[in-house]
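pipeline: protein-struct stage 2 | run 1193 | Cortex morphogenetic protein CmpA
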Amino acid sequence: MPSWLQNQFLKAYASKDIQQIKTLNQCWFFYYKKLLND
């Protein structure tokens, strides 16, 4: 996982921002699938 994404996750969890966490999860799965397919 890229460091910029890890930092975003840490901020979202620290502020308990559920919507941000869900969005970051979607970004991560999209990014991860793309990495596997390349």
